[in-house]
């Protein structure tokens, strides 16, 4: 399957063309079919009312254009919408404890050009809050633990930062984790928590690379080095095309001088990370263990994310019989089994999940 979408056309609400509209109607019908939806027999006003209350539609909001292409329709058949499959998911979770894992950027917040301003909306915060009141909930992000907490600001949620290299959770019951990397602390409500930092030995080297890289890149306009404690994110979204080569050269030079580190690529970002066998999937397993859900027969983990680094968590969920959901509006190769198009659909999904949780108190799990 091609990873590059080939939009048949873009249709803007403000400039409808009758011939394009007919094509759109036919394609939309196929799209609904692929999403497992029947054609609605409700009146338009009923549909709009339901949409306002039940479902946040990610498309055609405020003049936003909607792109529909055949590749996406085919991909959607393989990765059905988690909204249209909601009842199937609930049936699959019967008798098990739902545990919710969420990425942050691009999942709970929109991708923005300034990474310091990737704020989540109040509505999304309320949705995460409500879900965390029903089910154990954790956010696993590439940001530092402190930064992701400062964005989310919810005490009821567990956090894992630096791609899982800094995880805050209850004291672990499983003795297989090296206590040397456990730091005892207290959360904002005075509860004892443990911060697990499996890459702690690398911290002095990360600090050194950070200061050297900042010095060496100070003359490259537009580059931004984000310190995420155990990994460094070099954002080049605002760097001129002709200067990009210098950015990558400097990063590569750091890797030559620090062979215990490696580079990964993201959306307009290069990341320098310690080369340890630990990723978001490991952080997910660690949190399940510390939360008391070692037995995969008793737990139904849901993970929602949009990054390449989330694939490690999707892989774990496929092995454990969980529910991996990718956030994407274009076809992508992924280990996820289900999809949501954007953070607005994530919000809809979380709202629906918490409503179900509140209505089914025997299956929810207040913390
Ligand atoms: Mg993300």
Automatic annotation (TrEMBL):
It comes from the Eukaryota. This is Uncharacterized protein. It comes from Arctium lappa.
């Amino acid at each position: 399957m091609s990873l590059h979408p080939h939009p048949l056309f873009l249709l803007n609400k403000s400039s409808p063309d009758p011939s394009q509209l007919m094509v759109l109607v036919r394609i939309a019908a196929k799209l609904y079919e692929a999403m497992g939806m029947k054609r609605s027999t409700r009146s338009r006003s009923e549909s709009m009312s339901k949409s306002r209350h039940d479902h946040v539609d990610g498309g055609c909001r405020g003049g936003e254009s909607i792109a529909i292409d055949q590749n996406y329709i085919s991909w959607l058949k393989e990765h059905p919408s988690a909204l249209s499959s909601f009842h199937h998911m609930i049936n699959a979770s019967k008798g098990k404890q739902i545990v919710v894992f969420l990425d942050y950027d691009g999942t709970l917040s929109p991708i923005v050009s300034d990474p310091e301003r990737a704020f989540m909306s109040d509505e999304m915060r309320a949705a995460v809050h409500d879900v965390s009141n029903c089910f154990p909930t954790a956010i696993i992000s590439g940001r530092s633990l402190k930064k992701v907490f400062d964005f989310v600001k919810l005490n009821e949620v567990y956090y894992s930062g630096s791609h899982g290299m800094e995880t805050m959770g209850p004291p672990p019951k499983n003795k297989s984790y090296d206590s040397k990397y456990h730091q005892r602390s207290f959360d904002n409500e005075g509860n004892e928590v443990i911060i697990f930092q499996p890459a702690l030995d690398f911290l002095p080297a990360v600090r050194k690379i950070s200061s050297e890289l900042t010095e060496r890149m100070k003359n490259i306009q537009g580059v931004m080095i984000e310190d995420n404690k155990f990994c460094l994110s070099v954002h080049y979204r605002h760097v001129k095309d002709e200067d990009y080569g210098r950015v990558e050269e400097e990063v590569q030079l750091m890797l030559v001088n620090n062979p215990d580190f490696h580079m990964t690529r993201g959306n307009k970002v290069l990341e320098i990370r310690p080369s340890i066998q630990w990723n978001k999937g490991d952080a997910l397993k660690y949190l399940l263990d510390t939360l008391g859900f070692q037995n995969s027969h008793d737990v139904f983990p849901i993970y929602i994310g949009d990054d390449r680094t989330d694939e490690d968590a999707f892989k774990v969920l496929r092995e454990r019989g969980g529910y991996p959901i990718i956030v994407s509006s274009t076809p992508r190769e992924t280990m996820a089994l289900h999809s949501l198009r954007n953070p607005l659909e994530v919000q809809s999904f979380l709202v629906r999940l918490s409503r179900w949780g509140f209505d089914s108190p025997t299956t929810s799990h207040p913390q």
